[in-house]
Design a protein that fits this description.
The protein is of the alpha/beta class. It is 36% helix and 21% strand.
Length: 247
């Protein structure tokens, strides 16, 4: 039976308050084993926890993160005073023992990201990104980080060749997969990914899994569950699976 680590997606999921200290705190209150968060770089070169390039979707402000300093962000009085936080603030608040999945949204953040990681030395750090090329730079600059390409399968015709090329090209610790890909032809896909896990010693993380039905589709091969609803998924698993408490 697969053991699974629960990661709180942006703390409490997509929407107002996402990627904030309060959201991360709530995700851990709901018994998540760690946090999934996004980082970008500000004008004054500070890694901050923000998903989008601009503040338009969440805050209805057509402003770019790269054009704003941390002081600017704090002064905007957004959803609440807590809503935009730096990566440093996250490590200071939650320590270096929980599991972190830090998604690189803008590779320009890497030099400052390295310095923050060097200072706080998180024990369990996975670094993920849709921009796969930046992960080789992460390996060079932060060799202790666990590398995880994020894969949504858009435009992919032969998923088997695509996945094998990804593994051979990046030697990842984990592949972070869109769970929706497993909604059809599920048995065939699960069997193939189970064989890949065994042959290449690679873990599988799935985003964003928020219902019991979604969980059941990928449970057999799942190592990391990235969810907006940690407590619901934990309740779903406890009757049939042992949750993972360490790597």
């Amino acid at each position: 039976m697969t053991e699974i680590l629960i990661l709180a997606h942006r703390g409490t999921g997509k929407g107002p308050g996402e990627n904030s200290i309060n959201a991360f705190k709530q995700g851990l209150v709901e018994k998540a084993d760690g946090l999934e968060l996004d980082i970008r770089i500000t004008k004054d070169r500070v890694p901050v926890c923000v998903h989008d390039e601009t503040l338009k979707r969440v805050f209805d402000k057509d402003l770019s993160i790269k054009d704003l300093t941390v002081t600017d962000l704090k002064g905007l009085k957004l959803f609440d005073s807590d809503n935009i936080c730096s990566l440093q603030e996250v490590f200071e608040r939650f320590g270096n023992e929980i599991f972190y999945d830090v998604e690189i949204k803008d590779p320009d953040v890497l030099p400052e990201f390295k310095e923050v990681v060097r200072h706080f030395q998180p024990v369990r750090l996975m670094v993920s990104s849709f921009k796969h090329a930046c992960l080789n730079h992460v390996k060079e600059r932060i060799p202790e980080a666990l590398i995880a390409p994020i894969i949504d399968f858009k435009g992919v015709n032969d998923y088997r060749s695509y996945i094998l090329d990804m593994i051979q090209g990046y030697l990842p610790y984990s592949l972070n997969l869109d769970s929706r890909f497993f909604h059809e032809d599920n048995s065939e896909k699960l069997n193939w990914f189970r064989d890949v896990k065994a042959e290449y010693d690679v873990k599988l993380a799935f985003w964003t899994v928020n219902t019991s039905e979604e969980f059941e589709k990928i449970a057999a091969v799942c190592d990391f569950l990235i969810t907006d609803r940690p407590m619901l998924l934990i309740d779903q698993m406890t009757s049939s699976m042992k949750r993972k408490t360490s790597i």
